[in-house]
Amino acid sequence: MIEENKAIEKATVFLLERYKRQPPPFFKAYLNRKGEKIKFPGLDEVFVQNETYWTIWFYPAVKESDSYITVHVFMDGKVEQPAEFFDE
């Protein structure tokens, strides 16, 4: 299992390499566990996690925005960004 500090490091390096600039500061991390049930505000449907992975949040790239930058770090070391937040 990847520890929280290693997941934060992987997410930071991923953003740095992808966008060629320092990402905003780290905000928080959350370990999504396989089988965990999640209900998002405003939705009636309950979702069940199908794998375990870290969600790493960074503060927004644009001041006064509420769009936190999100990166997923999987237990096999794979890193992905579910959405892009910088102008490329």
Give an account of the 3D structure.
With 88 residues, the chain is of the alpha+beta class. The chain is 18% helix and 31% strand. The protein has one helix and six strands; from the N terminus they run αββββββ. The strands form two sheets. The protein has a four-stranded antiparallel beta sheet, with helices on one face. The protein has a two-stranded antiparallel ribbon with strand order 2-3. The model has no long low-confidence stretch (mean pLDDT 90).
Work out the helix count. 1
The H-and-E topology, N to C, reads as HEEEEEE
Give me the secondary-structure category: alpha+beta
Sequence of strands across the biggest β-sheet = 1-4-5-6
**Low-confidence residue ranges:** none
Overall spatial form:
globular
Helix percent band: 10-25%
